[in-house]
Design brief:
The complex is a heterotrimer of chains A (about 290), B (about 260) and C (about 300). In chain A, about 75% of the residues lie in helices and about 5% in strands. By secondary structure, chain A is mostly helical. In chain B, about 40% of the residues lie in helices and about 25% in strands. In chain B, helix 5 crosses helix 6. Chain C has a two-stranded antiparallel ribbon with strand order 1-4. The chains are: A mainly alpha (about 290), B alpha/beta (about 260), C mainly alpha (about 300). Chains in contact: A-C, B-C. The interface between A and C is large, with 37 and 35 residues.
């Protein structure tokens, strides 16, 4: 029994980093462009499909396919931001409607090309680690490490590089930052592209672990938003912590509670946070 | 005593904006609230109007407990407040803005029968006609009749402030709280405002006004209270209060006292 | 108010047009029109983006059918059950949301969450709802018509008139509300709810009224739709359905009571004019959402009216 719990715990931590990378995208987008981009789930799904297509369809080795896929998704994210979201800055409702519309468009395109049949990528890194009697697939460990590194790198660059600090300053006080020479338009476009890239990375790594289908984005964006709310805006480390909390709660919870209603528990949780977090979605903007 | 506040306190996290103010307003008075910027005057008015819930203290209106009541209940009880930065329905016309403010009036005059106006064949032309006349009357009083059909967002700053006053008047307040009604107004507009306010008082409305223009408010008010750092530091007749050492020190600094 | 004259030809249409396809398209347009118009009461007029509408639609359909089967009651009574059930659920959910003073965006998320919870419950409660398989109806709806007694509602023409009357009634009810003092309260809440509060308007009460009345409309649409196609499944409550509702309302026009019916008609008629499969339909809904928000915020009807005024 203990082994089962520990196993689920470890699994939950790993899945949690996937939630965390989406949450990071959500929190960055909200801090800099003022909207919650629900389409990040769809971008994650796109990242997964493009990676699968590049490796299994064209034959590009996985370690190369991932950055390529991330790049593709980031470029698309940038294009979409400039064409659409540029006109919904700080307008949560319009941003919501446009992002829901975008999800439909992206999912429809994927459905048309690849249909609704789930696809599985071939094994990238078969084999397992044994950690004190618990089995952890090697690939999962790799995914965990990569995501963790990316999140920590993001944190580091936000606090140490000029671009990062400019972003931070802008999130706190847009006018002051603009007066200090921060080019708002460029910053917003950059953050949009980066958030999409993060989601794409999550998808690219997801594809190596699980089978992919057009609907996978939906539950990830939901959990990403939950984790971001738990964390508080601008809190990079918080996104990580929030994601892991949700991942672990899910994993361990599924041992004891009927799994059919898994998603429902997450939703109830979301409702409760939104009702009781006094300052609304993300607390203060700092 | 129409309005009585006892030990009213408001804390925002670590900041105490209003601390332990006790004060009373009598029927038919014009009370002025003075104090330097950031002293808590607006917060005090927001507390009375229900926009903020007090952290401590009590609010008594005609001897009834109104502490912590929501804004619409306080407005319905007869206390209405204007905003320092005018709050309007910018997309609607001036007339429509005041029409919305007529909700309380409609509620009072028709009561539950106003549900009947929803039936398709109800002849509510008479109700709307009388309402329309009253709205025009209020607009004329506030010198806004020329802008009747213009969008509220297109008014000048002074016009916006007067519209705020007009909307407050439409709510038929017994106690009208005015937060810096004169700021941003030109000379003529201030004279008009003065006239409107005195006229209101003569017709039985009690007024409580914040204004940093000591001259304007000093002439208008019957009684004054000075607030500094969230606490009441003086109370009495305007000319007395404005000569008080502590008041001068609060506004201008120690050397002038 | 000469706009109601536009409805007159619709009453006479079946006398002239006998093409079953055309009439069927119109039946669907009317039912979905009820759905879109009632949604717009909450969104376009009271300013609250509710993502619970599809859930109201579906819950009423299930409630109507299940009550008819388990309690042996006629259709119109089953519809009442559906509407009352949805109204009660709406009061609870609305009270929770508005008591906590959720702003529009968070309200949208919470209603979406509740909608999904409802869908999951229906999906998994196999013993009662038959889960993902859905239910094929074995009961035909009946109506009591004065002079004829109780008759089954069968055939496209009967459905046509039933749904036409229903959508006209819905538009009349919503119109009366919108053009009254209550409509002014809705407008004040939509434009500046904090100001409305200080003017003595009980924001909680009127938000709740708009939510409950709007969902009741969705409930009526749900009962009619389910019995028209004699089939029901959890997809009635899916996010895609909510998406379609928003698309209809935005396409038709947010600022007019009846305009969403136009949106419903265009989206219903489209698959018959252009051959589209399910994926393409999804694509179109998505594009409509994006394009109307960015380019045509007043919708078709609003833009047309604006052109006419400018001319």
């Amino acid at each position: 029994m203990l082994q089962l719990v520990v196993g689920q715990l470890l699994n939950g931590v790993i899945v949690g980093t996937l939630y965390a990378i989406i949450a990071l995208g959500v929190t960055l987008t909200f801090g800099i462009t003022g909207i919650v981009n629900f389409a990040l789930g769809a971008f994650m799904m796109l990242g997964a499909y493009i990676t699968w297509y590049l490796t299994d369809g064209i034959g590009i080795p996985y370690p190369l396919a991932v950055p390529l896929a991330v790049l593709c998704v980031a470029l698309l994210g940038l294009a979409v931001d400039q064409a659409l979201f540029r006109f919904t800055r700080n307008n949560l409702i319009n941003g919501l409607i446009v992002s829901i519309g975008l999800i439909s468009v992206l999912v429809a395109i994927v459905l048309m090309i690849w249909t609704t049949t789930p696809q599985s990528m071939h094994y990238v890194l078969p084999g397992i680690f044994r950690i004190g009697g618990v089995i952890v697939p090697k690939m999962k460990a790799v995914v965990f490490i990569v995501l963790l590194l990316v999140i920590l790198l993001t944190y580091a660059s936000l606090t140490r590089t000029w671009a990062g600090r400019a972003a931070y300053a802008y999130a706190q006080n847009p006018e002051a930052a603009a007066l200090m020479g921060v080019r708002t338009g460029v910053l917003q476009a950059g953050v949009a592209a980066y958030s999409t890239a993060l989601a794409g990375l999550g998808g690219a790594l997801y594809a190596s672990l699980y089978s992919i289908a057009p609907e996978i984005g939906a539950s990830y964006i939901l959990k990403g938003v939950e984790a971001a709310i738990l964390a508080g805006i601008g809190s990079v480390v918080g996104s990580l912590v929030g994601g892991i909390i949700i991942g672990v709660a899910e994993g361990v919870g599924s041992i004891f509670l009927p799994s059919a209603y898994n998603d429902a528990y997450g939703l109830v949780f979301l409702v409760l946070i939104l009702l009781f977090k006094p300052a609304g979605l993300f607390g203060s903007k700092s | 005593m129409l309005l009585e506040i006892a030990d009213l306190t408001k804390r925002f996290g670590g900041l105490t904006a209003v601390s332990g103010i006790s004060f009373g307003i009598d029927h038919g008075e014009i009370v002025g609230i003075f104090g330097p910027n950031g002293s808590g005057k607006t917060t005090l008015l927001n507390l009375i109007a229900g926009v903020y819930r007090p952290t401590a203290g009590r609010l008594l209106w005609k001897s009834d407990e109104l502490t912590g009541a929501p804004p619409h209940e306080i407005a319905a009880a007869g206390i209405v407040k204007t905003f320092q930065n005018p709050q309007l329905f910018r997309e609607l016309t001036v007339f429509d803005n005041v029409m919305i403010a007529a909700h309380l009036r409609l509620k009072r005059h028709l009561g539950v029968r106003r549900m009947a106006t929803l039936w398709p064949w109800y002849r509510h032309r008479s109700v709307n006609g009388e309402l329309s006349d009253h709205i025009d009357h209020v607009l004329t009083l506030c010198r806004l009749d020329r802008f009747r059909d213009q969008a509220a967002g297109s008014l000048s700053y002074g016009g916006e402030k007067m519209l705020g006053v007009a909307m407050a008047l439409m709510c038929e307040p017994e106690l009208l709280l005015l937060d810096e009604p004169g700021s941003g107004l030109g000379h003529d507009e201030i004279a008009n405002l003065d006239e409107v306010l005195r006229d209101l008082r003569d017709h039985g409305t009690t007024l409580c006004v914040i204004d940093h223009r000591v001259g304007f408010l000093g002439n208008l008010a019957d009684r004054a209270m000075v607030v500094h750092h969230g606490a009441k530091i003086a109370e009495g007749r305007p000319d007395e209060v404005l000569r008080d050492e502590r008041v001068i020190e609060a506004y201008l600094g120690r050397s002038h006292a | 108010m000469k706009s109601y004259l536009l409805w007159l030809p619709l009453f006479l249409l079946p006398l002239v047009v006998h093409d079953n396809v055309v009439l069927t398209v119109l039946v669907f347009s009317f039912i979905l029109g009820i759905l879109a118009v009632s949604f717009n009461l909450i969104f376009g007029f009271a300013g609250q983006l509710s993502l619970f509408h599809a859930a109201a639609f579906g819950l009423s359909a299930y409630a109507t059918y299940l009550s008819m089967v388990h309690w042996s009651i006629p259709f119109w009574l089953g519809m009442v059950v559906g509407v009352v059930f949805v109204a009660l659920v709406s009061v609870v959910i609305g009270a929770i949301c508005f008591r906590f003073k959720l702003k529009e965006f968070y309200f949208a998320i919470v209603t979406l969450a509740f909608s999904e919870i409802a869908r999951l419950v229906i999906l998994n409660w196999n013993s009662f709802t038959n889960g993902s398989l859905g239910i094929n109806f074995t009961v035909t709806p009946t109506l009591w018509v004065p002079g004829h007694g109780v008759i089954p509602v069968q055939g496209t023409v009967m459905w046509y008139y039933l749904t036409l009357v229903a959508v006209v009634l819905t538009v009349i009810v919503c119109s009366r509300i919108v053009h009254s003092w209550m409509g002014r309260c809705f407008a004040s809440i939509r434009l500046n709810d904090e100001l409305a509060d200080t003017l003595g308007i009980n924001v909680f009460r009127y938000k709740l009224i708009s939510f409950v009345v709007g969902n009741a409309g969705a409930a009526v649409a749900g009962s009619l739709y389910a019995f028209y196609i004699s089939f029901i499944d959890p997809d009635y409550l899916s996010i895609n359905q909510s998406l379609a509702i928003i698309a209809m309302a935005l396409l038709g026009g947010r600022s007019s009571v009846a305009a969403p019916v136009v949106g419903a008609f265009v989206l219903t008629a489209l698959p018959h004019v252009i051959n589209v499969n399910a994926e393409a339909r999804l694509l179109i809904y998505g594009l409509i959402l994006i394009l109307t928000i960015l380019l045509m915020p007043r919708g078709l009807v609003g833009s047309l009216m604006r052109l006419r005024r400018a001319a």
